[in-house]
Amino acid sequence: MAWTESSTIQRSLLEWAEEAGWDRLHGDELPRDDHDVVIEGWARESLVALNPELGDDPESTDLVLHEINQAVLDAHNGLVSANERLTVMLRGDHAFTTINGEHVPRRLIDFVVLENNRFTVADEVRIAGSVKPRRFDVVYYVNGFPLVVAETKTPVKQQVSWVSAAKDIYDVYEDEYPNFFATNVFNIATEGLEFRMAPIRAVPDPDSEIWAPWGSTEDDPKVITGPARVERSARLLLRPEVILPILKDLVMFRHARDASETDIKFLPRYPQFEAALAIHDKVLADGRGGLIWHHQGSGKTELMAFAAARLLRDDAVVEKFGSSPTVIVIADRKDLVRQTAEMFETAGMPRLTVPRNRRELHELLRSGDPGIVITTVHKFAEAGHLNDRSNIIVLVDEAHRSQEGKFGDAWRAAVPNAKFFGATGTAIQDKDRSTFKLFGDPSDPDFVMSRYTPEQSIADGFTKPVIVEGRSVGFSLDKEALDEAFDELAEIENLDEEEKVYLSGKASHIETILSNPDRVAAVCADIVDHFLAYVAPLGQKAQVVAYNQKLVIAYARAIEEELERRGAVMFDGRLREVGVVMHVADSKDTPKEHQQYLLTPEQEEALKRRFKKVDDPMSFVVVTAKWMTGFNAPIEGVLYLDKPAKEANLFQTITRPNRPWKNPVTGQRKDYGRVVDYIGLAKAIGTAIAGPKLSVDDEGELNVIDASKLAGKFVADLTKLLHLFAGIDTVDSSFDSLAIAHERIPDGGTQRTEFVEGYVALQTVWEFLDPHPMLLPFKQQYFWLAKVYESIRPKDVSKAFLWARLGAKTTELIHGHMNAVVVKSMASRTVTLNAAGLALVKRIAEQLRLSNTSPDGQERTDVYQQVLDSIEARLHRRLAEGESRVYKSLAERIEKLRTRAVENVEDSLAFLEEALRIAQDVVAADRAAEAGDEEELERLADPKRGVLTQIVEENTPQGLHQIVPEIVDRIDAIVGEVAYTGWTSSDSGDKSVRRELRAVLKNYGLPIKGDLFDRIYRYVRENY
């Protein structure tokens, strides 16, 4: 019997549907004519059952069905608009005309009690009309409305795939019979090996992220693949309890803004679906909130739109809290607010407000009006208490950034009973900050409500792998000549030793090196070389991250000059352009050379749109902070990084180019993003990729501090400190009052020391507790002490003047003695951040528990260096305790690994795999040493011989076991003598090793053929 689509995946879809509660019929058994889209008898039956008042009003029932059928027929004039209209009808939001001329909303589907609906799945559903009749493989009906169409293909034809099924839907069925898709929620395309879902009018493409996989964030994409993933996807998605929530709340439409765009329908991806429902469930359970930790670029802004829509449309939320909710969406930058608001507006979100200033926000929240409010975190400053309602839901974007400290305190104080949900791609956990503690719910596993990892996102195709390419920017420094020149400058300027130390220290800054004109020119020339060779041919754009604003301008000008010198033009002959985006203050103190880059929000938005267009010559944008995070431009193919970054900012930065993109002109898709690193990536790239985790010890710290007791201590310490200023009116802000305060704490006196130490301790407690209500009565006195403290802090005006006078000369001296600046590609510093690479780096980081700082406090140059140095740090610690054969052998393995050249992706992964094995052996050696396990230490001391011993022991007669070590020694020695580098690829080398192995076995009376020889040979080939 041959495998066919009907005997394999099509039949399985029907069987899985039956198990999920669908009634199964053949298409010919449906009570409909071939030209019907809606099964009118079933629709009428449900309409009357869900709207009992229509039972005695058949004419109004006919009018409802007539209006539905007219909307279905209207799909021939535009499928997306017809689908949007029918989506509103199916949700019950449309008011139908009655026979008496009234307009009354009607329920077509029961979204609350699912059992009140008719769920039917049918195969081979025929449709006929003015064109050729067609058959749909599987159709899922709810109350007679076809909500899902599944097109299946055979899994055993090489030239047939899910794309073939998707093409049939897009090119044939939707084109010839758009009316059948007027009530559609989504389509399915599968051949049994892959499973994809998409909204109507989704262009099929093998790499399309619109035709999206479905699954669960609990699944490992490396484990659940192929037919198993198809079954898992179908069973998860094609259930009434999933399809109906998507239809009711999570279907959105993005409307065209101009003639160059078209209306589109978009749907949630499965991690967005899970998180949106989890937020909704937690709100209904009156939970405190939760943390959504999803990979950068996987659609957190859309997730917030889906969550807001579900909360605002659900009557259960109104019933729970007595009124409609207010959803506050918080971003930390104005441009992100604009970006978020635009997305919400085009998605047709109801009751949307974007306050222009603090006053508008405060008035809006005091009013208690329901709806969506999108704002920055900064507008909550000085808000005080605004509203006590518990049905305020706060959704915080980029929850790892400025949402802590005073800003986080401000919005929590403004709406203290709200539920707070944080969405981030880069959670932070260190001694000062914790995204887990700020947003996490202790009842959630590891304080995370929803987790979607980089590996899952890349495997699903929602984001692309990123290759980080290392660069070495070298130069020679004539130190002796520089010292002589500096001494000469000091003599001319009559500088004392302290002033010399100050000037040299001030100049010994990374900015001095980075701002060298020769270095700027060399780096920018390399940037243009790389861009023209690898990025421009693909139609992609580039982002350059420079150290500061001065260097942003320098890089922009240098790149412009390089592009002009090389005649780098677009396909239409226009010269490529360079844009600059940075925060420029509109004030008289802003340097003149910066003022030309002062952009209004509208101008910045226009630049962003230009950058995103493939035919616009705006090819580069140079930034220092703006657009380095939170900027979403799929056309960005490369990010050139020449600014130190670490932890969350590092990870956010290197994932800028990871968005999928298709060139609309050539049809070519982005395979991966690039980051070209000129600075030496921050020391913790391994930790940044692995991501933080709240440890068991951390969990215990969450509630160990009694805030009331700490507040009581604060008041006691404040009172003690105020005794130093007894009799001084702390409300008096005059100069005389300040002068008297200074007299109480004279410079050099014990009172000054007591005040400084006491205030610093007080400040720490205040920042921890604020805005605790017990602090409010003492706020004015504390701030008075803070001003006194600021007034006595030393201000070295002379040193600042010295730098203003001689800083430029000192910097010029250093630049003048930096010679031979050369930019080199460093293949050994190239890290491939695909799913496999991410997993390996993460496992190494977890195995070694890589810290955020290196032992010597210096920056690491690359991930390989960090991994090796971290392993060696452990080895040196053990070797320092005494001679140890095992640790010496591990050190030798590290040295061999260090000298290996990493030239391509495959070698990169092989390097990481070997590093992981060594890391595991180091940890095993530590444990064996602590346990006194000499046998394990011996195996680890020479892992090759340890494995050979095991192989020989398992295949040696009992009587010969005592001479196993001798056999292993002989094999090890012989192979060491005969084998040479590359012997495995040489026929003579391979024969020589085989011959010697057989000779050893024969000498000890062991078989020279069979399992023993085969296993020894395979092991020797792989490890010698």
TrEMBL record:
Keywords (A to Z) from UniProt: ATP-binding, DNA-binding, Endonuclease, Hydrolase, Nuclease, Nucleotide-binding, Restriction system
Domain Helicase ATP-binding per the UniProt entry, residue ranges: 281-445
Presence of keyword Nucleotide-binding: yes
Catalyzed reactions per annotation: Endonucleolytic cleavage of DNA to give random double-stranded fragments with terminal 5'-phosphates, ATP is simultaneously hydrolyzed
Pfam families, alphabetized: HSDR_N, SWI2_SNF2, T1R_D3-like
E.C. designation(s): 3.1.21.3
PROSITE patterns: HELICASE_ATP_BIND_1
Gene3D superfamilies with a match to the protein in the record: 3.90.1570.50, P-loop containing nucleotide triphosphate hydrolases
GO biological process: DNA restriction-modification system
GO molecular function: ATP binding; DNA binding; type I site-specific deoxyribonuclease activity
Function: Subunit R is required for both nuclease and ATPase activities, but not for modification.
Family of this protein: Belongs to the HsdR family.
Name of this chain's protein: Type I restriction enzyme endonuclease subunit
